[in-house]
Amino acid sequence: MGDTGRRSLGSELPNRVRQELSAMPRLAVYALVVCVLSVAAAVVAFTQGSWLGIVWILLAGLSSNMAWYYLRRGRMAAAARNRAADGSPAGGSPTA
Q1: Each residue of 24-54: b (16+ CB within 10 Å) or e?
Q2: pLDDT (mean) for 87-96
Q3: Does residue 77 sit in helix, strand or coil?
Q4: CA dist 14 → 17, 24, 28, 75 (Å)
Q5: How far apart are alpha carbons 41 and 34 in whole angstroms?
Q6: Cβ neighbours, 10 Å, residue 85
Q7: pLDDT given at position 78
Q8: What is the pLDDT of residues 10-62, one digit of tens each?
Q9: What is the pLDDT of residue 36?
Q10: What is the SS3 assignment for 26?
Q11: Whole-number Å distance between alpha carbons of 13 and 5
Q12: Cβ-count burial of 66 within 10 angstroms (0-12 exposed, 13-18 middle, 19+ buried)?
């Protein structure tokens, strides 16, 4: 129809940032959400005087490591796809 004057979030972001957000593995996002929620649960547990917050802290540590792992794995897979598309060698830059 016509322009409503509204802009989506994607139109305001630079192309590189949009690609990074869309390329972020879904499991990394889920693990990050679990990490944030478990930290919030730990804060609530400790403010109520419960030692159960220790379990929530351990879950936050585990989920943050999972988010980091899946994020790095996704970046390495994207770099490998880019290298394959460019035709460059798999080991990186040649040293010869």
Answers
A1: bbeebeebbebbeebbebbeebeeeeeeebe
A2: 60
A3: helix
A4: 5, 16, 22, 18
A5: 10
A6: 8
A7: 86
A8: 556 566 655 555 556 899 999 999 999 999 999 999 999 999 999 999 999 99
A9: 97
A10: helix
A11: 17
A12: middle
Residue 1 has pLDDT above 60, yes or no: no
State both tokens at 31. 């693990």
Q: Contact 35/56 with Cβ under 8 angstroms?
A: no
- Structure-block tokens of residue 8: 């989506």
3-state SS class at 4: coil
69: its two tokens: 């792992």
Identity at 67, one-letter amino acid code: A
Whole-model pTM? 0.64
**Residue carrying structure tokens 């930290």:** 39
Q: How far apart are CA 56 and CA 46, in angstroms?
A: 10
Helical residues (DSSP H) of the chain, grouped into ranges: 9-12, 15-23, 26-47, 53-86
